[in-house]
């Protein structure tokens, strides 16, 4: 065992515990935490579509939980108290680049694009395809036939059922892209 006097003479620098984490580790841990959350919610491999730099989590002062996710100055998502994420349009556009995220998307007929842009709900008869990971209450992105994000919202029905039904609401839109 090395005694303190021997450490100093041997050129060994004693370890000093720092309060908090070094900035380099903190940003790595935040990126890893966000990747785990995204992969859990939207499917394994979706987090690869996240940007590598400038991701920032904003924490609640009271509970210490993550509240908001930013990429630079743009809002990527809001973290709900139950752990789910409410994507912004920008966040949906980033994640839509991932082929695995397409399993969480609803493709609608082009004639309904105007209604989705204005924030109206998507009805079953206009659903062309729906991903297999869609469950009632899950976060979905609504796409046109070209793959452009029209809006984001909450699924009301299962993805399989959306295509089978001819009436009723399929997705409640939270945010639509204004033209």
Strand content: 25-35%
Order of helical and strand elements: HHEEEEHEHEEEEHE
CATH architecture: Roll
Low-confidence stretches: 13-26
Total domain units: 1
Helix content: 25-40%
Mean pLDDT: 78
Structural class: alpha+beta
CATH homologous superfamily heading: PUA domain
Number of helices: 5
The CATH topology turns out to be Archaeosine Trna-guanine Transglycosylase, Chain: A, domain 4
Radius of gyration: 22 Å
Can you characterise this structure?
- This protein has 179 residues and is of the alpha+beta class.
- 25% of the residues lie in helices and 28% in strands.
- The chain has a single domain (23-176), classed as Archaeosine Trna-guanine Transglycosylase, Chain: A, domain 4, CATH 2.30.130.10.
- The strands form two sheets. Strands 6-10-9-8-5-7 form a six-stranded mixed β-sheet. The protein has a four-stranded antiparallel β-sheet with strand order 1-2-3-4.
- The longest helix is centred in the N-terminal third of the chain and has 20 residues, at 23-42.
- The radius of gyration is 22 Å and the shape is elongated.
